[in-house]
Amino acid sequence: MGKTIAEKILSNHSGKDAFAGDIVIADIDFCMGQDGTSGIAIDSFNKMQAKSVFESQKIAMILDHSCPSPNEGVSAIHKKIREFAHKFKINLYDIGCGVCHQLVPEQGYVVPGNLVIGADSHTCTYGAINAFSTGVGSTDFAAAMISGKLWFKVPETMKITYKGDFAKGVYSKDLMLYTIGKIKADGATYMAMEFYGKVIENMSVDARFTISNMAIEAGGKAGLMEADKKTLDWVKKHSKLKPNPQTADKDAKYAKTLEFDVSKISPQIAKPHAVDNVAPIEEVAGTPVQQGFIGTCTNGRMEDFEIAAKILKGKKVKDGCRLVLAPASKTIFLELMKSGIAETLINAGGVFVTPGCGPCVGTHNGVPSDGENVISTANRNFLGRMGNRKAFIYLGSPATVAASVIEGKITDPRKHS
Amino acid sequence: MKGKVHKFGDNVDTDQIIPARYLNTSDPEELAKYCMEDADPDFVNRMNKGDIIIGGENFGCGSSREHAPISIKAAGISAVIAKSFARIFYRNSINIGLPILESCEAAEEIQEGSEVSIDLTSGEIKDLSSGKIYKAQPFPNFMQKIIDADGLISYVKRKFKK
After folding, report:
1. B161 pLDDT exceeds 90?
2. Strand ranges (DSSP E) for A3-93?
3. Every domain of chain A and the residues it spans
4. Which residues of B touch A67 (CB under 8 A)?
5. What is the interface pTM, i.e. ipTM, of the complex?
6. CATH number of the domain at A268-416, please?
7. Could you tell me the pLDDT band of residue B156, with boundaries at 50, 70 and 90?
8. Residue of B nearest to A71 (CA)
9. Cα–Cα distance measured from residue A267 to residue A206, given in angstroms and rounded to the nearest whole number
10. What class does CATH assign to A9-243+252-259?
């Protein structure tokens, strides 16, 4: 019987001929946690009375959610993480290195065919480079650090094929918001997703990460794509590890098969307070915004800032509105400086914060005020997400955010290109 | 276990269960103070130890923060019943020993404020107001072993000892 990508990767890592529904114990290639989750992982590690980790180089702890620390509680957690990382000689990415989901692929820890777990829900990001990667909690991360293994229920897979090409002003973020709007926040719960179509093939690897990153917003366990030449070139540039690309068999069994025509879709917006509350921009345009935010593990990459800079070059952020920018890594920040993009964005009125999660999680770096509207490139607009349950978060592409801060209201980016 | 029911809707996310501004601690007692704060700021004052949360579809969606089930458990909630759970929350709850039960019917029919008793071994949920008995989805065998060990920490510790 044919297999999906998820079934193949989990079979390869468990030594079992595994199919959806089976429970396997699999060897993991890499595991990581961030500063929001690693503290509890260390507590669990200690409670499990472990004395060592399975392989120090296959583990990372990344400080990205609240960096530099905004309060003494977080400082204590950061200190605990630094001490643990030092003691067990695991990879530590301290404040300002960037967001975990940019760093893990960028620093070469993950390649096609790998099995990766992370104590962060957006670990599904690396599906874009054909790795089965999924988010877990802190205690699972602790068990993985100790044993190098974790149990998995082999998921069923939802296959999504996109037909047609993007219209002008439409990006991978719009595509994923559109998809989540259609299948809803629990549309892929317990399932892996596989993405296909010419529009995916034509996309850069950066743009593909945006799609896989948001698989979890539909409840997905992984957001998988095949590895093509573009993937392999990208991986070769970033990693010394040997890729083992996996494709789905023709007779693989899918729980659901969906097709969407992308040629007619407009830029999309997720309205407060749910990621599946999606509307085409025409329905939302004109809504006033007081803050724009470009960054995060969804849209904080080089290409995202390039797109924004093209729109903001020679323009100004509207009076009464502000623009927060958080590059997804230090490497990206440096490239932005070298290329002049940082200067363009600062001259337009943008404010850079430390590479990392920025204001996405509501711990610092731009908490909105009561009644304010934010237009953001992040992946979540839940009530209170940015630190104030009386604020309203709209999600869109970097182009939409750039166009919107120029006008101080949600604006169709096609007006500014 | 027996307790009064507090009902919530679909897609209760972990940011509502425990907002990220409280992730500056991993102390369960501290996390308990803010349980469900962004879903219902008055929740911890309204609830009593042993009470039961009933959610709709996709309870616990969003972030992987284990602080969410920890804060519910530490607040004194004895179990969460929902139509369905988000995957990571489901796994985290089992790992930390927060009882969770999946039952569409129970989540649909049991009313806010009802007294409910739960038998975790049989998965039976009894609405003491109506007398109606619901049967929750059984856990796969492997997960049941972790639940029986009272969470992943004890499970792993026991494995080590062997």
Report:
1. no
2. 23-27, 30-34, 59-62, 91-93
3. 9-243+252-259, 268-416
4. none
5. 0.94
6. 3.30.499.10
7. confident
8. B24
9. 18
10. alpha beta
